Amino acid sequence: MFWQTSRFRIDLSQPRVMGVVNATPDSFSDGGRHLDPQAALERCEQLLHDGADMLDIGGESSRPGAPPLPLDEELARVIPVLREAVRLGVPVSIDSYKPAVMQAALDLGVDIVNDIWALRHEGAVEAVARHPDCGVCLMHMHREPQTMQAEPMQGDVLPQVLAFLRERTEAVMRQGVARGRIVWDPGIGFGKTVAQNFALLARQAELLTDGHALLAGWSRKSSLGAVTGLAVQDRMAPSVAAALLAVERGARIVRVHDVRETVAALAVWRSTISQAGWVQPPAPGDNQREQSP
Q1: Predicted structure pTM score
Q2: DSSP-assigned states of every residue in 4-30
């Protein structure tokens, strides 16, 4: 399986690690630490040194209750970072739901659009469709960041998430976005209860039936705190455990803050499946690069 993006055709025969770079003052886990563009770029370089396969850069917090960020402020936060990050030789993702931010990022050579709204904002699908090859991650979110945890989902979460992702995929593909450019994210923590989040992990195989690669974003989420009692800054171990469980259940990309520890855990997993008789995939970071047409 491959994920087609702007500059890279990413081999997903083994799990890939996406490192998180929050160029924000108020993200739930590390807000303010990388707001300065130079600090954000140093974060990018450190994540790559730690073994990240790709980078996900965002300028607006999507934590529960977070207020919307004006467009000009988001652009001021992310454009200087993206301009330098695309020179680092790995796939770069922009974490944004605003079409103007998507377009500005793609114009700089960014490879992936990672949208918590699954391209539901006016003009978002068109911004992605205008680009011939960029990758896109469609995420499920119940309601919106301001209200999602005040009124979380009800009932069986799996069929609702699957139906939503199928509908959004069909809508995007109708605009000419090829299937191989689309990855799914079930949206852990985005308007779901603790039980629903863990149901998504336990029954993750049900999200693989359509053949889309799955991105899992468990890193430091509040559900991990709910079952461990750990504060957000102490959730490295449960975050790595959740990422590893997601990979064992078929996720091809894990979006994480603790890259070094996640890469180490995946090395143990890789050695185990190799001893079980599986063909050992290439080492982390061995992306297959192709020039865009």
Answers
A1: 0.90
A2: E-SSEEEE-SS-EEEEEEE--S--TTT
> Is the per-residue pLDDT at 125 higher than 70?
yes
Dihedral sign of CA atoms 4, 6, 11, 15 in order: negative
Domains assigned to the chain: 15-271 (3.20.20.20)
Handedness of CA 100, 167, 215, 225 (dihedral sign): positive
Residue 216: pLDDT above 70? Answer: yes
Is 221 tagged catalytic? yes
For the chain, the residue count is: 293
Residue 234: helix, strand or coil by DSSP? helix
Catalytic entry in 98, 181, 235, 255: 255
| Strand pairing class (2-4; 16-22) | unpaired
| Residue of 220, 221, 235, 252 marked catalytic | 221
